[in-house]
Amino acid sequence: MRPATKALALSAAAAGAATWWSRRSSADGARPRTLAVTVHRSYEELSSELAQHRPAPLADLGDAVRLHSTPAPKDFGTELRLTVERPGDVAVDDARQALRLTKQLLETGTVMPPDEPLVRRRTLTALPLETAIRRAGKEGRL
Predict the structure, then answer these.
(1) pTM for this one?
(2) Which of 10, 57, 95, 132 could link 101 by a cystine bridge, Cβ 3.0 to 4.6 Å?
(3) What's the DSSP call for residue 60?
């Protein structure tokens, strides 16, 4: 294949990927999203605690989210469902992070900070890895 043909094919692929990404991003913001986690505490104990007050990470999100709890299947604890009702007010990434922090608080009573590598220099080649690690906490995958 000629270099010009390769460049044209790559630019067409990049344009297609950009179009797909922009449509995907705009479609996600229009509808309510529901996120769920299982907390390893009994439903009776946890539901009475949640009725008294919301944990701090969820309270910071305000009225744009709704929390619903149900018993998890096979007595595995409590399933928490967080619905982002107004996606324009709260980003789904922020809601996902708040739900993770809430799970940690309800199970252990504290939020564990992420591990920091002992030896890692900030270099130009390490920037993509640092960006991926920073975004993994909000997006749920690395």
Answers:
(1) 0.64
(2) 57
(3) T
* Pairing outcome for strands 33-39 and 78-84: antiparallel
Going by C-alpha positions, the residue among 40, 48, 135 that lies closest to residue 96 is: 135
Give CA–CA dist 62/60, Å, rounded.
5
Tens digit of pLDDT for each residue in 57-106? Answer: 888 888 888 999 999 988 889 999 999 888 778 888 888 889 999 999 99
pLDDT tens readout for residues 111-121? 877 666 656 67
Q: Which amino acid is at 60?
A: D
- Nearest-angstrom CA–CA distance, 78 and 45: 10
d(CA 48, CA 100): 20
Looking from the CA of 1 toward its CB, the CA atoms found within 13 Å total 8
